[in-house]
Structures are given as C-alpha cells and as structure tokens.
Amino acid sequence: MGKKGPKRHLKRLAAPDRWELPRKVAKFTVRPLPGPHPMDESIPLLLIVRDQLKYADNRREAKKIIKMGKILIDGRVRKEEKFPVGFMDVVSLPDANENYRVLFDRKGRVKLYPTDNPDVKLCKIKNKTVVKGGHIQLNLHDGRNILIKVSDPTKADEDVYKTGDSLLISIPNQEIKAHIPLEVGKLVYITAGKHVGEIGKLVDIEKRGIYPDIVTIETPDGEKFKTIKDYVFVIGEDEPIIKLY
C-alpha cells in the first residue's frame, strides 16, 4: 500500500466554527492548503471571495476571480483558491479599491473589516533563533521570517525582541516600522478562548513555570478577566498602533 496523499476535501460538519458555514447547504467545502496559518485559525481564500465579500455566487465564479489575479493578500497576488487567510492578514481588491483586515469577532469567527492602512500589518513573534553569524531570525505568527542582523553577537543589548512581542511591518517588503513588547501596561487583543475578540489593557503577568503563564486583562469598562498568555496579541500602548475597526 502506498502512502496516502493529503486530503482534498473537507466535510462542512467538520469545518472550523470560525468559518461560520451553513452546515446543510452542501456536504463538502474547500479544504485549505498547508500554509502560513493553521486551518482552525484561518479561512480559504475562496470562501472569502464567495461567502464574505459576496463577489461570486458559486465556487466556479469565485475561482475565476482568484485565478485572474484580482485578489492580493498582504500585497501579493494569490491565485490559489485554497490559500489560508488568517489573523491580521490584509485582503486587497485593487480594481474595486477595497482593502480589508482579517480579525476575529466576539464569537471567534474570521471576519473582514475595512482598513485604510493596507500597507502595514501587525505580526506576533512566535519564536526566535540564532543563525549563522550570530544574527537573529524572528519567526512570526503568519509564517514569515525576518532576519535581524547584529553588529556584535556578544552584545545582548542588540537583541531587543522577545517571543510574544509584536512587530508593525510594511507589506509586502517586511520592513519593521515599530516594535511593541509584551509587557504590563500594553494594549492587547484576545485571539482565542472565552474572551476572543476583546481588547483590553494587560495589567498583570503570572509566570507558572511548566504551565502556561496567566495574564490579567482590564477592559475599557474597568472589568478584569484572566486568560493564558498565548491568547494575547499586543496591538499598542493606549490606542492600537493601527486602526482595526
């Protein structure tokens, strides 16, 4: 028996809740290809064109629009209908002069919100490694990597980036515009859990060793709640560094 290839189809009943698909309209839906975002945190480009933007009535029409190169993700043309589009990605339609940023609503669903600054995006540092020459490679939440060149690897003060921090970068050329450290006092966006979609101030970080760190968030209304550190995405100081809604 040979090895089975990757699954090409996905039953609607098994599709992530974030997609908000009607379950009984059809048996199958589009399965996203492996890419910059995991399946349960993203949505295939075809579903954005057909179901969210309503630029097509069916899959054939949506596929044609995508194949014509009418859709840009983070400033680059994407012609693959199964390309996974995820949190903070920028979806642009130059012919219609429309730009959208991908966020999660209060129910955790993937949603598009109009944006007037489509040339930048926020990215979370998921991991960092030291590469040849002592330079630092930052691995971001959307699958991209950014190389930080240091003049002297022995000087720790050149390494200001930490896992969990956010970077404001230009797209598509990935120039770092700003660095927002994950620390008390910063404004954060909750990306998962009971409070997904909420924005609040980070007021405390409780380190728990081998267990996930717990953070305390204060909402604009003065209410406080706790969640795990992995669920917070730093977006600014007193205000988001870029307009989200």
Radius of gyration: 19 Å
Which geometry do the CA atoms define?
globular
- What's the number of extended β-strand segments? 19
Summing up helix and strand content along with how strands pair, one would put the structural category as mainly beta
Uncertain stretches: none
User: What is the N-to-C succession of helices and strands?
Assistant: EEEHHEEEEEEEEEEEEEEEE
Distance between the termini: 52 Å
The total of helices stands at: 2
Largest sheet strand order: 5-4-7-8-9
Residue share in helix? under 10%
Q: What percentage of amino acids are in beta strands?
A: 35-45%
Mean pLDDT: 89
Biggest sheet features? 5 strands, antiparallel
Overall description:
The protein is mainly beta. The protein is built from two helices and 19 strands. A five-stranded antiparallel β-sheet has the order 5-4-7-8-9, with no helix packed on it. A five-stranded antiparallel β-sheet has the order 12-11-10-13-14, with no helix packed on it. A hairpin with a 4-residue loop joins β11 (136-140) and β12 (145-148). α1 (45-52) crosses α2. The longest helix is centred in the N-terminal third of the chain and has 9 residues, at 59-67. The radius of gyration is 19 Å and the shape is globular. It starts with 8 loop residues before the first strand and ends in a 9-residue tail after the last strand.
Relevant terms:
single chain, 245 residues, mainly beta, five-stranded antiparallel sheet, 7% helix
SSE arrangement:
Layout: E1 9-11, E2 28-30, E3 42-44, H1 45-52, H2 59-67, E4 72-73, E5 76-77, E6 84-86, E7 90-93, E8 98-104, E9 110-114, E10 120-130, E11 136-140, E12 145-148, E13 166-170, E14 176-180, E15 187-190, E16 199-206, E17 214-218, E18 224-228, E19 232-236
Antiparallel strand pairs: 1-2, 3-6, 4-5, 4-7, 7-8, 8-9, 10-11, 10-13, 11-12, 13-14, 15-16, 15-19, 16-17, 17-18
Helix pairs in contact: 1-2
